[in-house]
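Students often ask why inverse folding is considered easier than folding. One informal answer: many sequences map to the same fold, so there is more than one right answer. In these notes we will look at a single instance of the problem. The structure comes first.
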């Protein structure tokens, strides 16, 4: 066989494998959304009228179960700049986006937007979006509407596309 043809076949196969293994943000939720649905006890804690933002450094990502009976979610542990305090920022259910889908890693400097809540006696920050600007490259991971706090994971793909710009 021609060496060029073999290289072409290998390139097509490797590209297909890469695309097939990419995470799917917004995958199909469990039937009851695992307690993450719009009217759930958990989502009632989010107060869009009390939205805040702060600058922080990412310390680590972790899995959380905010309330008993909920499916696991993704949280980012951050340290607010100028403070020693570590803040737990809840982002979304794992079935919507996993830790590797969030787009931030340990040491990243970020701006976090959302609302404070006390859940099970613990202060947590319920994230709406996390932004990063590194050398002019802008990145953001949005999980809630700014206007009313509607979770992106409860929207149709078309609605998410419309609001993620």
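Output (designed amino acids):
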């Amino acid at each position: 066989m021609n060496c060029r043809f073999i290289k072409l076949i290998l390139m097509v196969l490797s590209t297909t494998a890469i695309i097939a293994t990419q995470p799917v943000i917004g995958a199909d939720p469990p039937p009851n959304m695992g307690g993450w649905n719009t009217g759930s006890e958990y989502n009632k804690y989010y107060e869009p009228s009390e939205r805040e933002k702060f600058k922080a450094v990412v310390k680590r990502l972790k899995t959380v179960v905010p309330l008993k009976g909920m499916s696991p979610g993704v949280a980012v542990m951050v340290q607010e700049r100028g403070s020693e305090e570590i803040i737990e920022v809840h982002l979304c259910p794992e079935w919507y986006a996993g830790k590797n889908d969030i787009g931030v890693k340990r040491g990243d400097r970020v701006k976090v937007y959302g609302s404070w809540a006390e859940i099970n006696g613990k202060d947590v920050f319920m994230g709406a979006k996390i932004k990063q600007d590194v050398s002019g490259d802008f990145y953001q991971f949005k999980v809630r509407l700014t206007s009313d706090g509607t979770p992106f994971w409860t929207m149709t793909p078309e609605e998410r596309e419309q609001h993620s710009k």
